[in-house]
Design brief:
The complex is a heterodimer of chains A (202) and B (183). Chain A has 202 residues and is α+β, with helices and mostly antiparallel strands. Chain A is built from 6 helices and 9 strands; from the N terminus they run H-E-E-H-E-H-E-H-E-H-E-E-E-E-H. The longest helix of chain A is centred in the N-terminal third of the chain and has 29 residues. In chain B, strand 9 and strand 10 form a beta hairpin. The chains are: A alpha+beta (202), B alpha+beta (183).
């Protein structure tokens, strides 16, 4: 009996170490530097924009971009973030056009291109909406290390848990910085200005 | 002496009963409002096409017994639930409050952005700043309380205070939500 308990303890310990090792390896990989940031954030995708046109990562190429993942049924965080982003875009002035701004849904089952288009009409016109099939959304979310999960509610519907930060990516699709939820205006605008300054000048 | 005290007792009973009768009947709301008060309710304007919105308020319990907000309803939404929102390690989490939101005896609970809110789902039309919406709150003990909830602009944080840096308070009235004014 005692020997068996000892074996179980050792096995549990080994398992624990394995989990920790994988976690550390993952964390280290996530921080591999690329040209100017974290190479392993971002990647190729194929989605549909809010006008109904197919878009890929190449659609964004050539300009740095701000990319945010949320959903239109979101009662608070998403409208607040898009509202804040709209205000920051205004504050950028002429620099605003040097960047692309994308709102990607994590709720493709409900967020059609048409609904996203109507939703985004309430925010700055620079912000585009991307949706796709659940598989396409899963792919881009995984590439951007965005966490999202459907949480059922008692009425048979659901809400979404999701990462709440805006990712800033440079023109070569390398990670530049994040803007956390409810960042203050000065800091957020400084990050966007810095990103705009990296835009190709041609 | 005994008959006199009985008479007094009877009179007291009749008085109490008639007072209770006057209070009950069709005016249970007045009775309720003495127990729980709904202070400074407000809702946020929603973007075009949005199917959900949130309402906020302070619920004060002036009684010596705890109560619970167990549900709500509104003509403007198909369903109304009580939710709690949190941002944990950068992940927004929203959870339905199960079993009702406790309002301690003699205490209060504030529903506000980043915390508890009344979640309106299946909005029949957008919530427009400057308008107001009806909301009926259901409490375990106090029963139903109906309030009129003014809709504030999208970046609003309630009242005149609010979080600095949000810039929400400066958005006085957004007008129609088709397009909003931004500084």
């Amino acid at each position: 009996m005692q020997a068996r308990q000892w074996v179980i303890t050792v096995m549990a310990g080994v398992a624990g170490f394995a989990v920790a090792a994988v976690a550390i390896a993952f964390a280290v990989t996530a921080r591999q530097p690329g040209h100017s940031g974290i190479a392993s954030i971002g990647g190729p995708f194929t989605l549909v924009d809010d006008a109904g046109a197919q878009v890929t990562d190449k659609t964004l190429a050539g300009k740095p971009y701000a990319i945010y993942f949320g959903y239109t049924y979101c009662p608070e965080v998403c409208p607040t973030t898009l509202f804040d982003l709209s205000r920051w875009i205004k504050k950028l002035g002429p620099d605003a056009d040097k960047l692309n701004y994308v709102f990607v849904t994590v709720d493709p089952e409900r967020d059609t291109a048409k609904l996203m288009h109507a939703y985004l009409s309430s925010f700055d016109k620079h912000i585009r909406g991307f949706t796709g099939t659940p598989a396409q959304i899963a792919k881009i979310a995984s590439e951007y290390r965005v966490y999202y999960k459907k949480i059922p509610t008692s009425d048979g519907s659901y809400v979404m848990d999701h990462s709440s930060m805006i990712y800033l990516m440079d023109a070569r699709e390398n990670f530049d910085a994040i803007i956390p939820y409810q960042e203050n205006d000065a800091s957020a605008v400084a990050k966007l200005k810095s990103l705009a300054s990296q835009a190709p000048t041609s | 002496m005994r008959t006199l005290s009985q008479l007094v007792f009877m009179a007291a009973l009749i008085g109490a009963a008639s007072a209770a009768f006057a209070q009950g009947g069709d005016n249970a709301k007045i009775n309720v409002e003495q127990k729980i008060t709904v202070q400074e309710p407000w809702a946020r304007a929603t973007p075009a096409g949005a199917m959900s919105g949130a309402a906020y308020m302070t619920l004060a319990n002036k009684t010596s017994t705890a109560d619970r907000l167990t549900g709500a309803s509104s003509d403007v939404a198909v369903k109304v639930q009580i939710h709690e929102m949190k941002v944990v390690n950068g992940v927004m989490q929203m959870r339905e409050v199960t079993g009702g939101l406790a309002i301690p005896a003699g205490g209060s609970v504030t529903l506000k952005p980043g915390s508890y809110h009344v979640m309106l789902t299946g909005l029949k039309k957008p919530l427009v700043a400057g308008q107001s919406i009806p909301l009926t709150l259901t409490f375990a003990k106090a029963g139903n309380i109906s309030v009129t909830v003014p809709v504030q602009a999208m970046g609003a944080t309630g009242g005149n205070g609010g979080m600095s840096g949000m810039g929400g308070a400066q958005q006085d009235k957004g007008g129609g939500m088709g397009k909003m004014e931004m500084k």
